[in-house]
Amino acid sequence: MFGSRRKQDIRDNQMLIERLDGRAVKYVARREPDSTVESVIGRAGRINTKNGFITIICDGTEVFRCPVNSAKCGELLSLEGVRIQGQDVKTGKQSQIVAYYKYYR
Predict the structure, then answer these.
(1) Per-residue pLDDT averaged across 43-65, rounded?
(2) Which CATH number belongs to the domain containing residue 33 in this structure?
(3) Relative to the CA of 103, which of 19, 76, 81, 86 has its CA 20 to 30 Å away?
(4) Where are the alpha helices (DSSP H) in the chain?
């Protein structure tokens, strides 16, 4: 009864992370926490969720990596991308990343 909503949110987050594995991305942007500015940090890449980390690699370079257990993910309302919030292993800071999916038409 109490806490069932939190368990559902955790389960939904895990299911989304599993669906992200191997997904191609058009570009990746980092949102600044103080403002509404998004800066592009990579283009033409892929999302990997293996070995307990969410890793985004663009043009052969790792642009973001965070542990799966501390990440919060949510798809954009347009379903054209995903927002990932977590502590970046490289910088050690809390980051918000938006990865826009690549569509094959």
Answers:
(1) 91
(2) 2.30.29.30
(3) 86
(4) 4-20
Give the residue numbers spanning the domain of 64.
Answer: 4-101
Residue 3 banded pLDDT, cuts 50, 70, 90: low
> Residues 6, 71, 15, CA angle at the centre, nearest 5°?
65
Closest to 13 (Cα-Cα) out of 57, 92, 71: 71
- Cβ proximity of 4 and 70 under 8 Å: no
Q: How many Cβ atoms are within 10 Å of 6's Cβ, its own excluded?
A: 9
The residue assigned the tokens 């293996």 is 50
Instruction: Give the separation between CA 17 and CA 29, rounded to whole angstroms.
Output: 18
One-letter amino acid of 74: G
Within its chain, how far is the Cα of 98 from the centroid?
A: 6
